Amino acid sequence: MSLADRLPAGIGDRLPEDDGDRALLLGGFAVALALVLAATPVAVALPGELFVFFEVGTMFVIYGILVLGLDLQYGHTGLVNFGHVVFFAVGGYTVAMLSAQNPFVGIGLGYPWLVALVAGVLVAALLGAIVGATSLRLRDDFLAVATLATAEIFHSVFVNFREVFGGNTGILGVPTPLADLAGDTDTTMLATLLFIGGVTAFTFAVVTRLTDSPYGRVLRAIRADELVTRSVGKSTFTYKMQSFVYGAALAGLAGGLFALYNGTVAPGYFTIQVTVTIWIGMLLGGASNHRAVLAGLAVIMGLRLLSRFALDVAPVSADAFASIRLIVVGMILVAVIRYRPAGIWGDPKELGVDS
Amino acid sequence: MSLLDVNGLVKEFGGLRAIDELSVSVERGELVGVMGPNGAGKSTFFNCVSGVITPDGGRVTFDGDDVTGDPPEELARAGMVRTFQNTRELETMTVRDNVRLAGPDQPGERTLPALARTDSMQTHEREVRERADHLIEAFELDHLADEYSSNLSGGQRKLLELARVLMLDPDLLLLDEPFAGVNPTLTKEIAERIRGLNDEGMTVVVIEHELETLTELVDRLVVLQQGSLLVEGEPEAVLSDERVIDAYLGE
Fold it and tell me: If A65 and its partner were Cys, which of A97, A124, A254, A301 is the partner (CB 3.0–4.6 Å)?
């Protein structure tokens, strides 16, 4: 007799049945805990050695939102987006410029952060719609080129239009609502990780519901063969557009949360390195499987973190070590493509690759 | 009124006229065969009618509406569904999902009902699954239902493609070489199924190389040559026509 059978019907019925519902529950719990921590006088003290784990953990959950959006686009719909960072950046800059008070350089309008966050998501979605409308009707590889180019253009705009975007300094003075609420650094760190982690869990729940439904079936059919999907009556362009825009909006959300956590945005946070990291995480874990892409991202970011500690004991300079790290990451990727082309937890048949 | 009326269809590739002023019409309930030597324009004709490519001239009327150049998804929803010469399976999906995909009017294929898991979506999905399972069983693919379709043989793929398009319950079914690469036993079986669908009232147009099966199957034969209509009529009359013999046996 399972647990659900032994519980009174009313409660048993409400137990989450699948990954998505569990994530929803977990996300709600994490966000609630974060708010309690931040809003009440309760304070935590974290050992100083753990700081780095909290920092990397927070970046992991932010990048987690990015990789879930990218996987909706690539893993499920087959759209190759090599400029995912641009939607992350546009979300971050929109939120920063709308909400910053007295930025050092660049524009800061001082609107409430919640308004700015909503706007950040919308602007990223709008940019996604523009890129999608111009590239998605063309041959598949045009999207890859168009997204890569868009990311480079925006990066250069952010650096060069100093009066607007603050150049390499970026936008300072972005409000940090959780930090203001929590007060001390340690409590802020824990609350931030829990809060953004909760949002990532919500994102997981939303994309799982979407891809588990008949909607997801159409997306995977487009990935397999667009003409067949059209010939059984599905408007594939609309689906490609939606999938692309949803991914962009999620990246905008991640960028906005990053700005409100970090208190500043600058071009250095939004380099092609971000796109590379989430692509490697997705391919390493296994595209088209939400858990796998998050696990892949955890592996790659965990390796980076490990290598920080390794640097302390390594008999080489920091520069040399950075190159070694790149070589190691590259070799891991080569090994995965050679031996597990669908990723560590991916399904080769689902992705149409021979292993 | 004809169910499908093709009038003065023209399609050029570079300087080559693949379809040259072709006019064909198909009555409701008919079973029509389209034949012709290689390069006669049979598949191009299908592609133009089904919206896969846009014709350069002429008119296609389906059920009284001008559908010239309409995209395949709109035509499929209007009741005109096709299969492909080289079977196109969704290889990264299971047999079940291949068939389920084609279920029409599923509210769960829109974002909000999918996210909210509405009752109407779930009820509809149950119907889709039932119907898909029924079709998979009818085509004797049930032992393969959970296999990825990349694992299917050529003949099984033809059956799967038929099961998939039947989910749409089409008024007009366009079959592009349904017997190509299929063994004789299965050829007979597929022919019987096509005959059965037609008996139930479905209008079917079949392109085929395999003359024997085709002539036994259809009510009327249309022979194309170099993109235009060579002969049309009852199968026996067409096959004994000298122009057809010339076209097939060559100079």
Answer: A254
CA atoms of A178 and A183, how far apart (whole Å): 8
From the list B73, B97, B165, the residue facing A217 with the nearest CB is: B97
Decide: A176 and A257 in contact? Cβ < 8 Å: no
The C-alpha angle with vertex B161 and arms to B160 and B167, in degrees rounded to 5, equals: 90
Residue A189: DSSP 8-state: H
Q: Are strands B203-207 and B4-13 parallel, antiparallel or unpaired?
A: unpaired
Shortest CA distance from B162: residue in chain A: A232
Asked whether the beta carbons of residue A214 and residue B114 sit closer than 8 angstroms, the reply is yes
Q: What pLDDT does A350 receive? A: 82
| Structural domain spans, chain A | 17-270, 272-355
- Chain B residues with CB under 8 Å of A349 CB are 92, 148, 150
B6, B53, B159 from B26: Cα distances, Å? 9, 20, 24
Produce one character per residue of A117-143: b if its CB has 16 or more CB atoms within 10 Å, e if not.
Answer: bbbbbebbbbbbbebbeebbeeeeeeb
- Taking each continuous run of H as one helix and of E as one strand, the counts in chain B are 10, 10
Residue contact A231–B72, C-beta within 8 A: yes
| Chain B interface residues (partner A, CB cutoff 8 A) | 50, 52, 71-73, 76-77, 81-82, 84, 88-93, 97, 100-104, 106, 108-111, 114-115, 117, 121, 125, 128, 148, 150, 164-165, 167-168
To the nearest whole Å, the CA of B250 is away from the closest chain A CA by: 35
CATH of B4-89+155-161+168-249, one of 3.40.50.300, 3.90.740.10, 3.60.40.10, 2.40.10.10: 3.40.50.300
* Pairing outcome for strands B57-62 and B31-35: unpaired
At B40 the pLDDT is 86
Question: For A106, left (φ over 0), alpha (ψ -120 to 50), or beta?
Answer: left
Please report the number of interchain residue pairs, chain A to chain B, with beta-carbon separation below 8 angstroms.
105
Q: Grade residue B48 by pLDDT with cuts at 50, 70 and 90.
A: very high
CA distance B115 to chain A (A): 6
Residues of chain A contacting residue B108, judged by C-beta atoms under 8 Å apart: 213-215
Cβ-based contacts of A19 with chain B (< 8 Å): none
Residues A25-43 have pLDDT tens digits of 999 999 999 999 988 888 8
Q: What is the pLDDT of residue A4?
A: 41
Instruction: Locate the domains of chain B by residue range.
Output: 4-89+155-161+168-249, 90-151
Helix (H) or strand (E) holding B13, with range, is: strand B4-13
What are residue A10's DSSP bridge partners?
none
Residue type, position B124, single letter: H
Q: What's the pTM?
A: 0.91
Nearest to B102 among A220, A232, A349 (CB): A232
